[in-house]
């Protein structure tokens, strides 16, 4: 039985040291940038710092913003030879999980845009790029470009605001980013949202998950708040429903999942299936009461495959979190998702007020079933315990311990640590 151990080879050690030095530098540079304000460039425009560099004309007709984030992480594993013989080696390692730069802005009150690029497998790739319209009659928003498909509560929530290092194994069944047109509408009282889009993947722009296969899809997500405390923004009950019908242009599809640690290999894998289409149905629930939050989802994927007897795959998770320091996860009423956590007192906010930042304790249970009929992709279940420290709204440290079990084989114990910074 292998035990937890620190990375031993020099490459891993250098990577760990680089992540540590970068994170320390970002920690202190962010405090300096927070007080940065540049004089007006002209009588009609100004640049300033507000959670990122911004440029805004005096009449607010033109607004531009530069955003960036970097995430460095390390992971250690403990497993036995039986499991590694099936899924591959589980090596202690470190990596830059995400390094992204985004440029976004608006022209007038109606037109807005965003372009985000990031490094993936040592290559620069476009993550998101779109142009949109807003502030129209009846208040819909329209986006055209390469963007997220509207499905799943945890997918709608940005990875920078997630409870855990990785989203749940349910990610194996839901679509990712795709190219198309998306229309979103939120009710005036913030009690419901509807998002619908038509998508078609473009070769070279497919993302992770099932988006790698050339696809034509229609995807819809609707959310509602059956209960909310109008006197408090931190007490809501959220319900959601997602639907997607997907046609596979090359007649093939594959579902696979890592055990909720990016540095681990795939544990569950359906293999390549000959399929005409698939239909996805997802259900969402979330509860927010002060420093407590609970969210749960399930998703079903029915594949139209005569050769494999139309298999039905399914996944689900349940997650709960608590802020012992009293903060809460803010709820975004226009998009039906959780937003950025703001500590009551930032860590090292001033020379005289050190603060504690915000602390969060989280627990998640998840399951994925890729076994049905002749398809034996595996059944995976896991438990994740996490502790998150939000030093300020831009910097946080996440620590996760994961126990993941592949049915018919054995389990793996993993521990991961990430330092992330964004503005």
SSE blueprint and pairings:
Blueprint: H1 10-33, E1 45-49, E2 53-57, E3 62-78, H2 81-87, E4 93-107, E5 111-120, E6 123-133, E7 140-148, H3 153-156, E8 177-186, E9 192-200, E10 215-228, E11 235-248, E12 252-253, E13 256-257, E14 268-269, E15 273-274, E16 277-289, E17 292-304, E18 312-322, E19 331-332, E20 337-338, E21 358-372, E22 375-392, E23 395-406, E24 411-422
Antiparallel strand pairs: 1-2, 2-3, 3-4, 3-24, 4-5, 5-6, 6-7, 7-8, 8-9, 9-10, 10-11, 11-16, 12-15, 13-14, 16-17, 17-18, 18-21, 19-20, 21-22, 22-23, 23-24
What does this entry look like structurally?
It contains 3 helices and 24 strands. It has a 16-stranded antiparallel beta barrel with strand order 3-4-5-6-7-8-9-10-11-16-17-18-21-22-23-24. With 423 residues, it is mainly beta. It has one domain (10-422): Beta Barrel (Porin), CATH 2.40.160.10. A hairpin with a 2-residue loop joins strand 22 and strand 23 (395-406). Mean pLDDT is 85; it is low at 1-42 and 204-209. It is 8% helix and 53% strand.
Summarize the structure.
The protein is mainly beta and 423 residues long. 8% of the residues lie in helices and 53% in strands.
**Strand order in the sheet with the most strands:** 3-4-5-6-7-8-9-10-11-16-17-18-21-22-23-24
Residue fraction in strands: over 45%
Computed structural class:
mainly beta
User: What overall geometry do the principal axes of the alpha carbons give?
Assistant: globular
């Amino acid at each position: 039985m292998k035990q937890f151990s620190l990375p031993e080879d020099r490459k891993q050690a250098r990577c760990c040291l680089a992540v540590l030095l970068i994170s320390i530098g970002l920690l202190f540079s962010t405090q300096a940038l927070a007080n940065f304000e540049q004089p007006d460039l002209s009588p009609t425009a100004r640049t300033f710092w507000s959670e990122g560099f911004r440029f805004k004309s005096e009449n607010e007709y033109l607004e531009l913003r530069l955003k960036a984030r970097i995430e460095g992480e390390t992971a250690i594993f403990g497993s036995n030879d039986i499991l590694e013989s099936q899924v591959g080696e589980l090596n202690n390692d470190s990596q830059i999980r995400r390094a992204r730069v985004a440029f976004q802005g608006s022209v007038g009150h109606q037109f807005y845009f965003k372009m985000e690029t990031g490094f993936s497998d040592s290559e620069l790739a476009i993550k998101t790029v779109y142009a949109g319209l807003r502030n129209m009659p009846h208040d819909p928003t329209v986006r055209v470009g390469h963007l997220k498909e509207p499905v799943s509560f945890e997918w709608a929530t940005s990875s920078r605001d997630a409870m855990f290092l990785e989203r749940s194994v349910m990610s194996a069944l839901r679509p990712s980013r795709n190219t198309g047109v998306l229309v979103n509408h939120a009710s005036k009282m913030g009690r419901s949202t509807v998002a619908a889009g038509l998508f078609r993947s473009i070769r070279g722009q497919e993302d992770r998950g099932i988006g790698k296969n050339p696809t034509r899809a229609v995807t819809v997500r609707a959310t509602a708040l059956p209960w909310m405390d109008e006197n408090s923004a931190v007490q809501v009950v959220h319900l959601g429903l997602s639907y997607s019908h997907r046609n596979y242009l090359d007649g093939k599809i594959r579902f696979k999942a890592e055990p909720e640690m990016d540095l681990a290999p795939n544990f569950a894998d359906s293999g390549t299936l000959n399929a005409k289409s698939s239909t996805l149905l997802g259900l969402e629930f979330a509860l927010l009461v002060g420093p407590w939050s609970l969210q749960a989802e399930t998703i079903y994927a029915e594949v139209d495959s005569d050769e494999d007897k139309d298999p039905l795959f399914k996944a689900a998770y349940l997650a709960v979190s608590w802020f012992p320091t009293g903060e809460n996860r803010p709820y975004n009423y226009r998009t039906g998702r959780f937003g950025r956590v703001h500590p009551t007192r930032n860590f090292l906010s001033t020379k005289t007020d050190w603060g504690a930042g915000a602390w969060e304790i989280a627990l998640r249970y998840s399951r994925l079933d890729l076994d049905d009929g002749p398809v034996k992709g595996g059944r995976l279940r896991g438990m994740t315990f996490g502790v998150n420290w939000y030093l300020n709204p831009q910097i946080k440290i996440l620590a996760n311990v994961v126990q993941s079990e592949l049915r018919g084989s054995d389990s793996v114990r993993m521990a991961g640590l990430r330092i992330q910074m964004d503005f």
